Amino acid sequence: MWSDLLALSGLFVVAFGAATILPFQSEIVFIALQLRGDIAIEWIILFASVGNILGSGLNYGLGRVLERYRGRRWFPVSETQLERARAWYQKWGVWTLLFSWAPLGDALTIVAGVMRTNIWLFFLLISIAKTIRYIVVAMITAAAF
Q1: How many angstroms separate the CA atoms of 133 and 41, rounded?
Q2: Alpha carbon 13 to chain centroid, angstroms
Q3: How far is C-alpha 114 from the chain's CA centre?
Q4: 8 A C-beta contact, residue 116 and residue 144
Q5: Which of 7, 26, 51, 109 could disulfide-link to 12, CB 3.0 to 4.6 Å?
Q6: What pLDDT does 130 receive?
């Protein structure tokens, strides 16, 4: 039991890190735990999803903090570009959060913070994307092994 909790906690930490700019790969740990076969897949999906969702929340917070520095000479985007991007993002961009599981998806979660996406909508879309990704990984792993 304690070894299972330790393994799931490790998965949580790796999944959290994988959602940030850190070079972590949560799928490797996820698949290894699934193939062990002694922990219910529902627990594996839950710990991986929650860790990954919270890691994306950290990115969102970083984006919010970064946005405070707009207008500074070193800020990478002009005020005009930022407003144009904000208009596009509010119309279409929020739905890109459903692809936050994909490569470069971490950047989307930072952009969501910069663009001040509604926090509830952010977490709803991120939760859907991240959880479905882990369900699909579990299904592919089960089919392959």
Answers
A1: 14
A2: 13
A3: 16
A4: no
A5: 51
A6: 97
> Tokens 């005020």 sit at which residue?
79
41-67 and 119-144 helices, crossing angle to 10°: 140
- Contact of 70 with 48, CB cutoff 8 Å: no
Q: Which residue has the tokens 């070894």?
A: 3
Q: How many whole angstroms from its chain centre is CA 34?
A: 21
Structure tokens at 76: 């990478």
pLDDT score of 93: 84
At residue 103, the 3 state secondary structure works out as: coil
User: In this predicted structure, what is the pLDDT of residue 78?
Assistant: 77
Half-sphere exposure of 88 (CA within 13 A, CB side): 8
> What confidence category does residue 5 fall into, taking pLDDT thresholds of 50, 70 and 90?
very high
Tally of structural domains, the chain? 1
Q: Tell me the pTM.
A: 0.89
Distance of alpha carbon 31 from alpha carbon 24, whole angstroms: 14
pLDDT at 40 over 90: yes
For residues 11-30, average pLDDT: 93
Query: Could you tell me the residue range of the domain that residue 16 belongs to?
Result: 2-144
Q: DSSP labels for 52-92?
A: HHHHHHHHHHHHHHHHTTTTSTT-SS-HHHHHHHHHHHHHT
